[in-house]
Amino acid sequence: MIVKTLKIARRLIIVVFGYTLLIIGILLAIPGVPGPGILVVWGGLAILAAEFLWARRLLKKFQVQGARMRDFILRRDKPRNSQVKILQDS
Question: Is the pTM of this model over 0.90?
Fold first, then answer.
């Protein structure tokens, strides 16, 4: 009886904390509001992913898109071969 009650209390705390972080992150992600909104949303999803399958799926999509964005940004910073040849010829 006590073990079941503790499991329910643990799950309730995780759900409340996860949703709180998710809502705060969404509010911080609004343009013009200072703060690390995307990171807080990611943290809220990570906490909710411990209990909910939909949160795990959304977190996975979030991570894949973040990796794509990172790769795009890092690729843009590198000079392309044609640009290097033009600079070397000058």
Answer: no
Q: How many structural domains compose the chain? A: 1
Condensed to tens digits (0 to 9), the pLDDT of residues 36-68 reads: 888 899 999 999 999 999 999 999 998 898 889
CA neighbours closer than 13 Å in the CB half-sphere of residue 60:
8
One-letter-per-residue 3-state SS of 22-67: HHHHHHHCCCCCCCCHHHHHHHHHHHHCCCCHHHHHHHHHHHHHHH
Q: Which residue has the tokens 């790769």?
A: 71
Domain enclosing residue 65, as ranges: 2-89
Helix (H, G, I), strand (E, B) or coil at 82: helix
Q: With H, G, I as helix, E, B as strand and everything else as coil, classify residue 49.
A: coil
Dist CA 81 CA 75 (whole Å):
12
